[in-house]
Amino acid sequence: ILALFPFEPRYFKDVGIHCDFVGHPIVSEIMADEASIKKFKKEFSLTEEPIVLCLPGSRKSEIDRLMPVFGKTLEKFSNVVPDVRFILPSTPDIFEYSKKYLDHMPKDIIFLTPEKFGLKEYLEFKKASFKISHLALAASGTVSLELAANQTPMVIGYDMNFLSRQIIGLMLKTDSVNLVNLITGNRSIPECIGSNLNSDNLFLEMVRVYSNNQKQINDFKTTMDLLGKNKEPPNVRAANSLLSFCKNFKTV
């Protein structure tokens, strides 16, 4: 097994499966450059105002559960940071479905989709939005690594149906589901999960992180370092791992 996370190999090795940590592809991702950022800001008349990303997930079930509560949270946040601008980058396969929940969002939110710009420019603008944002309200998932790579502070919210919540709750052996928290061993990323997911909790965490995000910034650097940043690229490490495994492999 070629593992993406440094904490994975020991679990597989304990049951006799060869596993090698080769780094995560996020460390090789190209971030938005100054030209893209300038172009994005010009398109949406952005200057120096605070920018908050809204990332409610890429599945219909996530959109159903998270967009209404995220929207209410953003409205509350705008009351304490009046000049804030919100950006909602929606994925190509879910943006049409997301439209029915736009009434729950602040009226001036930037709804970023491929519909207007085409896929190439949409992806360019999405990267730019991650790079320039001061805070993100996001669903739990790998998007947290994209945010960490862009040094974007975050608050995580997530929920699922009642039965799934009960089953998964019994299976969990950790007090965190956020990848940055799991990789660093710290708990700088606040999580409002399941019964704790509501606009009041999310709003309070957003204000707290917006006011002081240094612990998160430190953990972002640690996360990227542990995932292999500035080392041999993950694809090269994966190839070398396979070559080494094949070389040492002995048939019975």
Spatial separation of the terminal alpha carbons = 20 Å
Globally, the shape reads: globular
| Secondary-structure-derived class | alpha/beta
The percentage of residues in β strands lies in 5-15%
Strand order of the largest sheet: 5-4-3-6-7-8
Uncertain ranges: none
Main beta sheet: strand number and arrangement? 6 strands, parallel
Number of strands: 8
Which oligomeric form is depicted? single chain
List the secondary-structure elements in sequence, H or E.
EHEHEHEHEHHEHEHHEHHH
- Rg on CA atoms, Å: 20 Å
Key phrases:
alpha/beta; 252 residues; globular; 8 strands
Describe this structure in words.
The protein is an alpha/beta fold and 252 residues long. The protein is built from twelve helices and eight strands. A six-stranded parallel sheet has the order 5-4-3-6-7-8, sandwiched between helices. Strands 1-2 form a two-stranded parallel ribbon. Strand 3, helix 3 and strand 4 form a beta-alpha-beta unit. Helix 2 crosses helix 6 (119-132). The longest helix has 21 residues, at 60-80. It is globular, with a radius of gyration of 20 Å. The relative contact order is 0.16. The model has no long low-confidence stretch (mean pLDDT 92).
In short:
With 252 residues, this protein is an alpha/beta fold. The protein contains 12 helices and 8 strands. Helix 3 (60-80) links the parallel strand 3 (51-55) and strand 4.
Task: Annotate the secondary structure layout.
Elements: E1 2-3, H1 9-13, E2 20-21, H2 34-43, E3 51-55, H3 60-80, E4 85-89, H4 95-98, E5 110-112, H5 114-117, H6 119-132, E6 135-139, H7 143-149, E7 154-158, H8 162-171, H9 179-184, E8 191-193, H10 199-211, H11 214-226, H12 234-248
Parallel strand pairs: 1-2, 3-4, 3-6, 4-5, 6-7, 7-8
